[in-house]
Amino acid sequence: MTFFGEINLDSRRCRRRLVALSLPVWLALASCGMQPPTATPSLEPAPDAHSWPLAPEQARYALAGVLVGERNFLAPNRRTASKARSALNWLVGLIVGEPEYVELRRPVSGLTDATGRVLVVDSSHQAVVVFDMKGQRLLLWRSVDRGERFQSPVAIAADGAGGYLVTDSELGEVFRLTADGTPQGRFGKRILTRPTGIARDNQSGLVYVADTARHDIKVFDPNGALVDILGGKGEAPGSFNTPTHLLFHGGQLYVVDTLNFRVQIFDRNGDGRLSFGGLGLFVGNMTRPKGVAVGGDERIYVVESYYDYLLVFDAAGQLLLPIGGTGQNVGEFYLPAGVWTDAENRVYVADMFNGRVVVFKELTGVQGI
Q1: pLDDT tier at 21, thresholds 50, 70, 90
Q2: Is the pLDDT of residue 143 over 80?
Q3: Burial class, 114, CB count within 10 angstroms (exposed 0-12 / middle 13-18 / buried 19+)
Q4: What's the rounded mean pLDDT across residues 256-284?
Q5: pLDDT at position 365, please?
Q6: Model pLDDT, residue 31
Q7: Contact status, residue 289 vs residue 276, Cβ threshold 8 Å
Q8: Fewest C-beta in 10 Å: which of 7, 25, 253, 357?
Q9: Residues facing residue 54 across a β-bridge
């Protein structure tokens, strides 16, 4: 028995078209036999892709793609279909209406796994939305247990065994999913109040969870037992005020200390290594920092959600480049939330209120910035 929902493009379109009883039977049958051409989305910049910063400066980043939902898997050559097929599609669409596509609504975070799948946590869908690039399909993982679904999923991390760990701030737990999205367990009940960010140390197996309501970071062993608590409410180094997103990278824990307007970085012993950021009115300040990620040359990415920027810092916390600004156009954001990177030097931004994930490609090293 499976616990996750797989969106079937073909069967749904067939059902929609068969209800058009005014069409001849042959038309309904023909329309059901037609499968929409699919394609694997390319997450590489086109030769004429938008780039940042703007000319005449050297391009350091290029647009690699935008993920929105099922439409990403429709082949670009579908417009060149035969006249007969186009007419048939037009007639069916005229009577029944355009097919409905599953699209991202409120993406908040995500990751890209070793197979190239892009897993996006969507708070409005109350699910993990999976862009299966090789399978050319979109999946929705909604269930946390038999008969129980996500309510407010926030963040996802790999579990080190091929599966995933997902936090749910309303259910107050961390949920384990297998590689195919099947629920496999849970932990943190009556320990976590409002879990949001999550990160895992691949070396020790320890799992770090931001408990936003408690202003601390709960640390669990690989079996889900609480072993430590970091921080507590305050402004001093090592204290937090509404921590949200987390990252564990290179032996260091990155904590977005949202209402202290900074990012704090700790070693495995919990000792502070670096803190940067601050409240202000200038680009590069942090009014509502959210997602954090590390890319090539250890550059640090921070989402500044209030002013709708992706901020690029060097490993010492010095601002290198802002990308964004408020809007719906390419390179603009509207209340962005999460950010993550992959092994191919791509940077993914969960552009929450624009309902999309914007993908950039690193073109130069830090020295080039």
Answers
A1: very low
A2: yes
A3: exposed
A4: 95
A5: 82
A6: 43
A7: no
A8: 25
A9: none
Cα distance between residue 207 and residue 218, in whole Å: 8
- Which one, of 153, 147, 166, lies nearest residue 127 by Cα? 153
Question: What value does the mean pLDDT of the chain take?
Answer: 88
Give the C-alpha separation, 332 to 316, whole Å.
26
Q: What is the dihedral of CA 27, 33, 37, 40, to 10 degrees?
A: 150
CB atoms within 10 A of CB 141: 28
- Which among 112, 140, 114 has a CA at the least distance from the CA of 128? 140
Tens of pLDDT along 297-313? Answer: 999 999 999 999 999 99
CB 207 within 8 A of CB 157: yes
> Which residue shows structure tokens 């030097």?
345
- Indicate if the pLDDT at residue 205 is higher than 50: yes
Domain spans in the chain, listed from the N-terminal domain onward: 107-368
pTM for the full predicted model: 0.86
Location of structure tokens 């009940």: 189
Domain boundaries 107-368, CATH class: mainly beta
